[in-house]
Amino acid sequence: MSGGRSPFSPRPPSPGRSAALRRRFAEEARSGRPDLAALCLLLGAVADDALDENGIDAAQLELDRLAGQLPFRPGGPGAWAVALRDLLGGRYGFEGSAADHRRLESSLLHQVLVRRRGLPILLSVVWIEVARRAGAPVYGVALPGHFVVGFGPESGPYGERVLADPFAGGRLLTGADAELLVTGTTGEAFTPSMLSPADPLDVVLRVLNNVRAWAEARPERSDVALWAVELSLLLPSHPARLRYERARLLVRRGEFAAGAAELEAYAEVVGAVDAAAAERVRAEASAARALLN
What we know:
alpha+beta
């Protein structure tokens, strides 16, 4: 795969293929050991009809190919981090820039493998999947506002672990660097618990949250917002409020009856804990039904 930057204008798959992809996504998410790369590629196929089965296989093979170019058991966590940095950041030029935050393809694994550009979390997925295939002790670290990769034991003293920032081409991070990333991006105080390994399903939900944020800034792309919400709802654990978000998206897209029905269903759930909020949601449902007249 090359690092070209051709214009990206995805077309959604047919309803039948989309339904099949969503079933596979749900099955993978609920399996005993969810495969992060598979989930990200199924997400990409829901977004982009150009990603067919051959394309999904090709992306997996590219991850295998990259893993095969790593040295055999280079040493401890630091040696693994340097090997990944030299291969992915150095030889192949995987990194990110501010402009990547404005592109939908920066959240789609198959496109990140082609462009070698993406959001911090998708570049980290590439690192994790390549390193994992080579036998490295690797995991994602979901720092607030910036995703990075950890090498070494998943718990224990920080000194036994090594952090790398794929968005910066694989720059190795000290504890002070991690603190600066958190405080500089979010203003939050850094705590050691932020270095905990990220669960693969939490990674996928965070990817989908990024897609939703991209679409939210572009009201004309409510189609993208809708599939991102619907995939999020297929994950075993997700915020209940996503049901409300989906209902409002349906109304915005002119599907008034379906949106109103979902608003009413959500009001029933909310009513058990917040009667006033449930009434407000029911009022939204009535307003949506009125638009049918």
